[in-house]
Amino acid sequence: MVSSRIGASLKAARARLGWSRETLAHHSGVSWSAIAQIESGRRKDVRLSSLSALAKALGVSVDYLIGSATATAPRLLEHRLLTYGSDEEYLATAIPFFAEGMERSDCLLAVTTEEQIGLLRDSLDDRADHVEFADSAEWYRSPGVAMEGYRTFVNEKLDAGAAWIRVVAEIAPESRSDVEIPAWSRYESFVNLAFASSPTSFICTYDDRSWPADVIADARRTHPVLADGGNAAAVNREYRGPEDFLIDH
To answer: Which of 10, 141, 144, 145 has the maximum number of C-beta atoms within 10 A of its C-beta?
Structure first.
């Protein structure tokens, strides 16, 4: 079986678990040298039995590894929440998140305020060229516009050959009215459905100096993972699946 995407997809899925090639070889039964050849692109013809073993070990589908556009893939989305009270806290998570993505050749996007874009650019310095930036005021005009924006971005990047996508996102301050806030909470919950099979990591950031406590509480209920400084992450015990959260909201 031949695919130009296999090597990149295999490497990305392995990296998500923090596994070395030796670890993947142990879990899959596929030799370390074969894995190295597949990831480097030197081995073009990969047996289906090897692909199946690798996919099973990594918890992804064969369709994901070969880059099938019609794949019905398992859950790949990582949807993290970062609440922060200072610029230092914000950067302490956002910068390592992007730096790790650069090492893995992930596609990187920051959708946030002009002030935060400036902070990110200054902290990344010459590495900022690896990140695409978008103004949250434009991106988050409405939940529908935001959802379509991410769908388009993710699909275009995957079609162009990206193996994984990383996004740091913050809802625009202009969307914080009492009328709009419930719709944005439902939007955050729906992201877990809309992008479940997308190889994408979101960090949704909330400045707890400006968001009301009830908004932060809903954010904790709509994000399965909590960002905890650097690249650390923890399972969110307060998370409620969309099937529960959306019924009540």
So the answer is: 10
* 169/109 Cα distance (integer angstroms): 8
Q: How many residues does the chain have?
A: 249
Greater confidence (130 vs 12) lies with 130
List of residues 6+ apart from 178 with CB closer than 8 A: none
Alpha carbon 132 to its chain centroid, in Å, reads 14
Is the four-CA dihedral 75, 77, 78, 84 of positive or negative sign?
Answer: negative
Strands 233-235 and 225-227 come out as antiparallel
Dihedral angle over CA of 149, 219, 185, 142, nearest 10: -30
* CA distance linking residue 241 with residue 38, whole number of Å: 36
Q: Which of 208, 199, 140, 149 is nearest to 175 (CA)?
A: 140
Amino acid at 216: I
Q: How far is CA 34 from the centre of its chain?
A: 28
User: 206-221: per-residue pLDDT in tens?
Assistant: 999 989 999 999 999 9
Q: Say how far apart CA 63 and CA 71 lie, in whole Å.
A: 5
Phi and psi angles of residue 200, each rounded to the nearest 5 degrees, phi first = -140, 140
Rounded-to-integer distance, Cα 226 and Cα 196, Å: 17
Give bridge partners of residue 202 from the DSSP assignment: 79, 167
pLDDT band at 239 (very low <50, low <70, confident <90, very high): very high
Residue-wise pLDDT for 168-197, tens only, equals 999 987 777 778 889 999 999 999 988 988
- Write down the pTM of the prediction: 0.74
Rounded to whole angstroms, the Cα distance separating 51 from 67 reads 12
Q: What are phi and psi of 44, to 5 degrees?
A: -90, -35
